Amino acid sequence: MEIYDEVRKADVPKQRIVEATRGAILARKSDRIPLLVEQLRSKDKRMFQIGVRTARELGEGEVAEALVAELTRATPDRGAVLLAALADCSGSTASPAVVKAAKSGPKQVRIAAIGVLQRSGDASCAPTLLEIATDENAELAQAARTALAEFPNKEVDATIAAQLPKAKGETLVALMGIVGQRQIAATPALINALDDSDATVRHAALTALGETVELKDLDVLISRVTSPKHAEDTPTAIKALRAACVRMPDSDACAAKLIAAMSRVPTEMKCTILDILGAMGGPKALEAMAAAGKDPNPELQDAATQVLGGWMSVDAGPVLLDLAKNAPVEKYRIRAIRGYIRLVRQFNMPAEQRVQMCTKALETAQRITEKKLVLQEVIGLGRYASPDMLRLALEAWKNPALKDDATKIAMVIAQRIEGNSTEARKLLAQMGQDPVKVEIIKAEYGADTKQKDVTETLRRNVRDLRLITLPSTKYNTSFGGDPVPGTAKQLKIQYRIDGKSGEASFPEDAVIFLPMPGAG
Question: Higher pLDDT residue, 504 or 511?
């Protein structure tokens, strides 16, 4: 302590004095508070800041009391800083001084005080925060609502719920917003608010029900969607019903309620319910999609296949495959097979299952366009390379319309299979792709007169196939930079295959598959 005090008086740089002041406060025991307060009152900004920092480090009850005491003397900007420091002190509570600061005074100080009340976890400050939640200043009101929504003490829930039956207008709206955010069980009061003459109140009640209603009361929301008393409430009711259904633990029981409601509503509302079922997922929802996809009503076919196209699990695979074969309208069959392909491409699954699904997709797809999608977007992706995928490429190669795509994809797969080279060569040989000797004579990458010699890079990546796989799919990365930024470039290669000379050009980032010299 003596050494720190000596440095504080010495002719040394200001930073050393600041550091010594912190040390002097920390080194003291019983008389540290006066020195701390001296810094908190200092007109020197750096000394004030070191005082606040040290108060945070100490974090004791007497330090919190000192910070509270200084609130009445501080300027608004310093008051806000002191309150933030107070929130970090272990001794911070919803003291009368903090409550007073939250209720009145400069806005920035009030907002900081609200933060302290929130972090205190003292349920006794709930009435104060509820009062501020309807303040005419939007920023203050939002700060109080956020504090209540994130309040760590669950005891405050009962206080908030108890206020609902007595509240009206803006206060009621604010309370219901907090009820929804905290997911407080207050269903009876929220249901009563659904018949309020004020649309803002009704919408707040619907939104809160969406976050809190249980399965047994879900019919309340369903009826507000299917038989609205006020047409203007319908969009909010739909959002609330969707939110409620998505969070229900028993998705099948929830889906059963929605499906029952579908039988008594017009087509447009049926489509809305299908969309909600899609957001939920689950076996029961899939059953509804399967039925709607084959319904004679084309609007339901449209809605069901759209929802299935974005389904977030492979469970939709069998339904999509069935619709791809049996949907009444061709465009929905196409949409279904594309949705099925998306599942195979996008979701994790055992390798055997992916192969099986690819096989079914190739067999079911009625157009070459979708068959090519299976080849290019699933089989052709290197991360799924395997002998089984190579066999699928071989089967696709037998279709004249898929021959070129299947050949290139087979090459990619063959290069990426490890430990199966003998089997891969046998499969490639069946496609007429025997091993060849490839020599790169010269290779340039660029545009017009600006060309970069990339011969050595290509030579390092040549194998015994006509396909050359670079370290990256991006030419610029593989070739060490962009020779002509902002311009479309080409890769030009002079080569020999089994002693025969050839030349080929490839657009930037294209697959490098060397044509056989003299072919075509």
Answer: 504
- Pairwise CA distance, residues 367 & 187, whole Å: 53
pLDDT tens by residue, 263-288? 999 999 999 999 999 999 999 999 99
Secondary structure element (H or E) that encloses residue 221, with its range = helix 218-226
**CB neighbour list of residue 54: distance below 8 Å, 6 or more residues apart:** 22, 25, 26, 36, 39
Residue 383 has pLDDT above 80, yes or no: no
* DSSP letter, residue 10: S
Sequence-ordered list of residues with C-beta below 8 angstroms from that of 384, at least 6 positions apart, any chain: 351, 354, 378
DSSP 233: G
Report how far residue 167's alpha carbon sits from residue 140's, in angstroms, rounded to the nearest whole number. 20
Question: In sequence order, what DSSP letters do the residues of 459-484 get, joined into one string?
Answer: HHT--SSSEE--SSSSHHHHTTS-SS
Task: Output the pLDDT for position 181.
Answer: 94
Cα–Cα dist 441/150, whole Å: 68
CA distance 407 to 412: 9
CA within 13 Å, CB half, 410: 29
Contact 317, 378 (CB under 8 A): no
Q: Are 175 and 163 in contact (CB under 8 A)?
A: yes
Q: Round to whole Å and give the CA distance between 82 and 55.
A: 9
Nearest Cα to 179, choosing from 197, 156, 198, 200? 156
pLDDT at 420 over 60: no
- The residue-averaged pLDDT of 51-72 equals 84
What pTM did the predictor assign? 0.73
Q: How far apart are CA 318 and CA 41, in angstroms?
A: 73
Cα torsion 360, 366, 372, 376: sign: negative
CA distance 227 to 209: 17
pLDDT (0 to 100) of residue 64: 81
| Residue 414 backbone class (left: φ over 0; alpha: ψ -120 to 50; beta: rest) | alpha
Residue 151 vs residues 88, 130, 146: alpha-carbon distances, Å: 16, 12, 8
